[in-house]
Structures are given as structure tokens and as C-alpha cells.
Amino acid sequence: MQFGAYLTGAFGQSQQLYQARNEAKRGRSSEEAVLKRVADDTAKIIQLQQEADLDNIIDPMFDVFYLFQPFAEQIEKVNVGPQENWFNNNVFYWRPQIEGSLNLPAGFTERFIHLSELTKSGKAMVILPSPYTLLMLSDVRGYHNQKEAVTNLAEVIYAEAALLVSRGITRIQYDEPVIVIKQSLNSLTGEDLELLRRGIEVCGKVEGATTSLHTYFGDAGPIIPFLNSLPVNCIGIDGTETSLKDILKHDYSGKELTLGLLDARSTSLEDPVEIAEQLQMVAERTNPRKLYLTPNAGTEYRGFTHGINKLNLLKQIRSILHE
Amino acid sequence: MNKLFSTYEVGSLPKLNARVKASRGQAVTDTDILEVKNVAQKYAVEADEIIDIVQRQRREQRKLTSEEEATLTDFNALLYLRLQETIGLDLVYDGEARRAEMYRHVARKVDGFEDLPEMIRSRGPDSWRMSVCVAPPELKKDCLDNLIITEFDFAKQHAAKPIKIPIDDPYMIAVMSDNRYYLESLRHRYTNDPRQLRYQAKRAFTIALAQNVIRPQVEAVVARGAKWIQLDIPAATLDIEHIPIMVEGVNAVVEGIGASKFSLHLCYPRRVSLAEKKGYELLFPALLDLHPNINHLSLELANADQYENDLAVFAKYKNQRSFEIGVGVIDITQEQQQAGKIETPEIVKTRILRASQTLGDPALVYVAPDCGLRQLQLDRCLRIYETMLEGTELARKG
Predict the structure, then answer these.
(1) Residue B98, in any domain of the structure
(2) Which of A25, A91, A244 sits opposite B192 (nearest CB)?
(3) Is residue B364, in this structure, part of any structural domain at all?
(4) Which end of chain B is more exposed for a tag (fewer CB within 10 A), N or C?
(5) Residue A85 touches chain B, beta carbons under 8 Å
(6) pLDDT the model gives residue A138
(7) Is B288 an 8 Å CB contact of chain A?
(8) Are A272 and A317 in contact, with CB atoms under 8 Å apart?
(9) Residue B27: which domain range?
(10) pLDDT digits (tens, 9 = 90+) for B136-165
(11) Which chain B residue shows the shortest CA-CA distance from A264?
């Protein structure tokens, strides 16, 4: 069994970056100083991922304040709407206001990703919203029905993914928190599953890249068979919400499996031996093509130092597994 | 309170620019000084000594002495009491003039808390300093004076009108903090149930905060004669599955304290909840279990302007549990400020009457802005109060 590890979302900002932004806001420093700090911190986190020999390298996204920002700010006929809580976090996003149908203006992530830095590794991953999550957290008009809307959003996202792959990205992760949160809140319907499936049917296969549907902040247990049936190469499950018992019930043959067993929203550091044993057990019993360990989400919720701590833990656990 | 549609401020007002800059050792401008002069004159508060202090600080380009700092703080608190009274609010406080910011004001006085090394992004680039709970939380020794007693005594001494004291709710502090201690303490009990672990750890943390951090403040001000205490819970609907913990935390604060009226301030209702319910509906039926001493809820409502929808749930449960509602009638968001928009008295009047009609009893309706005004400019805050009072007067006339 092959074990791997990587980061799955935005990295916590450094205090220096916070200060640079604060100084610029008060007119005591320049925007150039902020950009320089972003570039320096980005280079540092990319380097740390490489030194940890992570399987996929991400941009830490210091310029992205919420998952939908590139989409909402860059695409014609999409506006930035009212502010909402990002699930159960003291963090906010702005609801996209979509007036469909959208054209396919690939390149909307360009301003937000340090592509040349990232692709040097040869194993660069970019994170995009899953069409279903984007649909459910947006105000959408101009479509005949939800299916048409999710199809169009998926086409936009697919076009972006394909462009990124043509520029050297090797893995695309689609972030899909909504489906598992609805499952946890007992509000999931058959229509939700169909909409998610429809979106992934459009964007789930990208030539030249591995694709992953990454769920987080909710219990995936009851819908693992459904997730397993989707046309993506990998499914990601939040191990801080989904019990190991439920994960172990299924067979993942033919798929890669990513387990978010490190809690990105807690400074508590997991026991590396215990996590390694859990992964060992999953590998032995469930037959995934490859098994990855990750934090359940981005480490942005606890800051830069915490992010480094979790990254070091990934490295440590992986070396235990390789021994 | 017998007056129809009594009015109050939810909590905070912006600190005076002159005070903030002088306190940081930055250059106070003529405009800052003029603001102090004008507001002080308008609300009949003596400001000569204050002007002397900031002008001296400006000349000498230095930080304030602790004595000067205290004088400025007292002035700011007194000014905001007088301002609220003169404008005509029925319940007043000091605009939280002694508090840096609601969470930090308390978090930095808790033993068992450590700061994270970096600020955490929350709203775009806006960030906050999160504390990590590494041991059972307890108030630091001798911190009650700084935390609440000094400000309460000062307000009580100087206020000519009844006062309502805002105090942080334990659940809000739990939500904004990293709960390392309780997660690690309880992990062995919930090895294969991570969701139950998170629930029980947050519950234990919230109860500990209620008993050891918030309740001592409440007891202290009640012993000094506080008649109305407002617990602030912006995060009440943040974690839909954890709302019962919020109720349990509040109850642990107020249980057995009968000498005061208690209210809750709730804002940021989860309008995109992904659950079958949304907004304030999410709080029911959990709110039915609130301690009977809590009979008043102050709600953010103007921002969405959906009074009928938002209040329907309170009307629905009225026979089981009737709450007075502090109806938010002014949208206090920065987006409104940036757009230069403010409600008219007519809009305020209509909102009050819509709320009254939905609740089915005007006697249940109090009037307030959506939330504290700390992030706005002071002149806008004054206009907000004036508009609110004018609109309320129109509503009283029907």
C-alpha cells in the first residue's frame, strides 16, 4: 500500500503578513509591502511542503479570503453578495450572486495563485469549489432549474481546471463541504445527491490530472458509498467528523482515499503513532489505490505556527508509515 | 419599564479618535480635538482637562501617563453616558469605553488561556487574536475590578437613567477560543465518536467559562445593584447542532441570581443554514429551556429587513414562552456606512410597527440598533440614535 500526505486548504497567515496588511490599511505602508510579504510567505510554505516530501504541493492562498473569492470577483455576471458565516467558523464569506448563464472565462484563479512557483515542484495541486457547494451557497438566477445551474457552474469550473492543468497543475481538488454538512444536519435529499453527481459528471474527469472531491466539516459516514460512486479519482473524508468505524465499513478499490485525520481547527496535536495505526488499519481493510493523510481542512483557522505544526506532524506520521 | 417601545443601545460605541491616538502615542490631529470639543459641548461634559492632555501629548510626542490615560477613559465613559441620556435612550451604559474589544477584554484575564502567536483571519483581512484553552479557565486573581467593577461603579454613579450592562456570554467565548484542554481531556472517552467528542468538549468548556469566568462578573455587579444584565452571544446560531450548549451556558450563569433582569443579545443569525430551519428559528425549541429569569432577547433584524419572517417563530412559541424583543431597527454594517445610507425615522417607525404586529403585543417591543456601534464613525452613531429616537416617537403615535 502506498501512503501519501498533503495539505488541503488555505494556510494560516503569519503575524508579519497581518501586520503588513494592517499597516497598509492605515496608510502607514504600501500595498507593495503586502505583496512582497505574501510572496515571501508563499515561497516559504511551498518550500516546507517540498522539504516534507508531500505528495501534492498547494499554494497557501494567502491572497484568498474565502473559497469563492476568485470566482465571485473575476467572472462576468457574478457579483459579491452579502456576508455569511463560513459554516460553524468565526470566519466569513460573501455569497456569490450569479446571473446565469455564465460564459466559460477560464483564468479566474490566475491572480490568486502563484502558478510559476507552484508548478516547479511537478506535483502542484489547486483547490476549486465543487459545483454543488458553489450552487448551494450562492444566490442564483437566470436558469430554468437547479440542474441547469449546477451544470453551467461545473462547466465554468471544468474550464478553469483544464486551463490550470495545461499550465502544469497535476491535481485538482474540488472542495465539497455542503453535502456532508447537510447529511449531518439531516437535511440531505435525493435531489442534493443528484445535483452533486451532475456537477461532478461535468468536471470530475480532467485529462492530465488527478481529481479529488474533498468533503469536510461534516460526517460523510452514511454517504460514503455515494461518494465512492462519483467519477473522480479520489474522495476526501473528514476524519474529525466521520468515525473510523464508518470509514472501515467500505471498500475503496479503484479509488484513492484521503483521510483528514488531523484536526485543522484545533491546536491539539494528534498522537502520530495512533494516527499511523489508524491509517494502517484502513489500508489493510479497505483497499484504496492510495491512501493519503491530510488535515481535515485548511489550517487557516489557527494561524501560521499551527499550520507548520500540523505540516510537521504529517511528515512525522508518514515516516512512521514508511518504516 | 412601562414606557411603550423603550429604547437602548446594544453595547459599544467607537472610542474617541483623540483618545485612541494619544493612547498609542500617535499624533492627535486638530480634527480629532475638534471632535472632542464639539461632542463634549453638545452633551454638556466638561472637556478642558482632556483637551489639555491631548494637546500636551501632541506637543511632547510621547505616550500618555497612566493617570492621563485614566482621565481620558473616564471622560469617554461619562461622555457616552451623557450622550445617550441627552439624545433620549431609556436605558444607557458607557459605550464599553473601558473595553478594548469584547472577546479580548475577557480572554486576556483568564488563567488557563494562552494567546495564539498569530492573528486569525475572520472577515476578509480583518483578524482577531484567538486564545487557546490549555487548562480549566479561571479568572485571574484580582481582575474583577478591571473587568467589570470599575466600569459598573462609574456608570452607576454618573448615570441619571437606568443602566443595562453588557457582559460576554460563555458560549461566545468558547466558540471564539481554541478548546485544546477539554478536547484532550475527553478524547479517551469518545475514541470512535469524533462528533460527540467535539460536542462534549465544547459543553464542558462552556460550563467552566460560565461558572468560573462569567458568573463571578454577574455576581459582582448584582451585588452592587445591577438591575439589568445583557449577555452577548453573537455566535448563538453559529453551530446549529450545539445550540443546546449555548442555553446550558446561559443558565449556568443566571441560575439562582434573582435580583436582576437578564437579556441576551443575538446577532449574525445563520440565514444560509443548510438545515431545514434558518435564522432565529434555529434557536427553537432550545430557547424554551432558558432559565425563567431571561425574558428579553435583543435581535439583529434590520440588516435583513424580514421582520415578519424573523419574528414569526417568537410569535409561534409565545404561549409556551413569551420574550420581550429588543427589535433591531438600524442596520449597523460598515457596508451601509460606506454607502452613506441610513434609515429614515419613517422606516424605523414602520419596522417597529411590523415587529409589534408580528409579535401580537406592542408591550413586548423594545427598540435598539442591530448591534453595538464600535466599528462606525461617531457622527454616524449620533445620527443613528437620533433617527432611532425620532422613528420610535412616530411609532408611539401610531
Answers:
(1) no
(2) A244
(3) no
(4) C
(5) yes
(6) 98
(7) no
(8) yes
(9) 15-91
(10) 999 999 999 999 999 999 999 999 999 999
(11) B178
R_g (Cα) of chain B, nearest Å: 21
- Residue with the three cell numbers 437620533: B386
Grid cell digits, residue A86? 463560513
CA distance B247 to B222: 21
Q: Stretch A272-300: mean pLDDT, rounded?
A: 97
Q: What is the pTM of this model?
A: 0.96
Report how far Cα A108 is from the mean position of its chain's Cα atoms: 17
Cα of B213 to nearest chain A Cα, Å = 21
Q: Taking CB atoms and an 8 Å limit, are A13 and B242 in contact across chains? A: no
Indicate whether B236 belongs to any domain: no
Q: How far apart are CA A176 and CA B277, in angstroms?
A: 21
Which domains does chain A show, CATH number per domain? 3-322 (3.20.20.210)
ipTM reported for the complex, 2 dp = 0.95
Percent of chain A exceeding pLDDT 70 equals 100
Q: For residue B274, give the 3-state DSSP assignment.
A: coil
- Of A13, A95, A187, which is closest to B121 when you measure between CB atoms? A13
- Measure in Å the smallest separation between the Cα of A179 and chain B Cα atoms: 9
What is the count of structural domains for chain B?
1
Indicate whether B211 pLDDT > 70: yes
Task: Examine residue B75 and state whether it is found in any structural domain, yes or no.
Answer: yes
pLDDT in tens, B33-60: 999 999 999 999 999 999 999 999 989 8
